[in-house]
Amino acid sequence: MWRMQSLGKAFYMTDVEVERIRKTLTETKGKDIKERFRPCVSNAEYRFKGEVMPEMMRQMMEDEEDRSYIFGNMDHVLEDFFYNGSTLARSGFMKRLYEFSPEEYKKYYPRFIEFMFRNKIFDANDNLVETLTLDEEMVDKMGRLLEEVASMQGLHSSDVEWAGAGKYSIAYKIGEKVIKLGRDRLSDTVPDHPCVVKPMYDKKLVVNAQRGTEEYLEVEDYLRPLEKYSFKENEGIVLDLFTKLRKAGWVWVDSRPDNVGKTKNGTYIILDRDAIYPEDYFEEHKAEIGKKISLGNFERYEKLRLAEMDSQVQE
Ligand SMILES: Nc1ncnc2c1ncn2[C@@H]1O[C@H](COP(=O)(O)OP(=O)(O)O)[C@@H](O)[C@H]1O
Ligand SMILES: [Mg+2]
């Protein structure tokens, strides 16, 4: 079965949607792929729009007629239809292509890697400023790393799945591991603490030698998403981690549910190791840090922590 994945969960398009796409594809057979895409998207329900292309791809690969288009226009397929690495990984397209033709897969593997780890940089108003791409050497390195982490677990690079992205990092899941590439780390310090994920591989890299962009590469355990979605529902989990780190002398500034995951054993830990400062350093450089990252979450959880301490004293 070839299905979309969303936030680590299987995402199911309704049968009605799938049928609608099939019908549109049949009606537009023979036309240019871009022309076929438009009616599929405009006919889709709003919440399925992002899933239309992968589903189209799935159906087209089943259809002999369109395979040559896919193989002959891989650049277009990537650029125009998958938008970014998240849709590519979530669509299962790589797996599908590998099953269909290992040679074709191998040929496009470097393109997939480059596409997956492309880093789009937005300004404060969410306008795209620039797109950083990996240079050839880095593409090769990341490609081999993915293969290695996959084969270590008896898997293949095409088993890659989407883990998530933040403002700075892009993370892919492969088996029980995550490969994460990020830029601009806010703090140089990383706590060695049981509440914070410990990578098996952690390296600072210069990704684009010409531009001198620094990126950080980590391989670590895959952490499961929290069961609850809202900020409020996860408040207790975040506060608990915040308090434990605070007791150990660390200030977790970017304290929010997005940065927490669940281990296989069901323990909640921090997966984003950035912006956790030693207490003394934080007190001294608060204003400076505040310019790089909002202190809102810190203030919120600090308040909650103090209130909890007060109530414990009174009891
Ligand atoms: N170890 C992991 N397990 C599962 N998902 C992860 C892991 N690391 C990162 N992610 C996903 O990638 C996103 C971005 O990673 P994160 O470390 O928070 O980087 P950023 O600094 O960009 O916020 C996370 O919010 C999460 O969805
Ligand atoms: Mg984060």
Account of the protein in words:
The chain is α+β, with helices and mostly antiparallel strands and 315 residues long. It has a domain at 235-314: Transferase(Phosphotransferase), domain 1 (Orthogonal Bundle). Helices cover 46% and strands 20% of the residues. The chain has twelve helices and 13 strands. It has helices at 15-27, 33-43, 52-62, 64-72, 74-82, 85-91, 93-100, 102-116, 136-151, 235-247, 279-292, 296-314; strands spanning 4-6, 9-11, 119-122, 128-132, 161-165, 169-174, 177-183, 201-208, 213-221, 250-252, 260-262, 268-270, 276-278. The strands form five sheets. It has a five-stranded antiparallel beta sheet, covered by helices on one side. The protein is elongated. The N and C termini lie far apart (56 Å). The model is unreliable at 1-10 (pLDDT under 50). The structure holds adenosine-5'-diphosphate and magnesium ion. Residues 166, 258-259, 272 line the site of magnesium ion (MG).
Question: Which secondary-structure class do the elements indicate?
Answer: alpha+beta
Tell me the β content.
15-25%
Major beta sheet summary: 5 strands, antiparallel
Task: Compute the number of strand runs.
Answer: 13
Order of helices and strands: EEHHHHHHHHEEHEEEEEHEEEEHH
The CATH architecture assignment of the domain at 235-314 turns out to be Orthogonal Bundle
Instruction: Going across the biggest sheet, name each strand in turn.
Output: 5-6-7-9-8
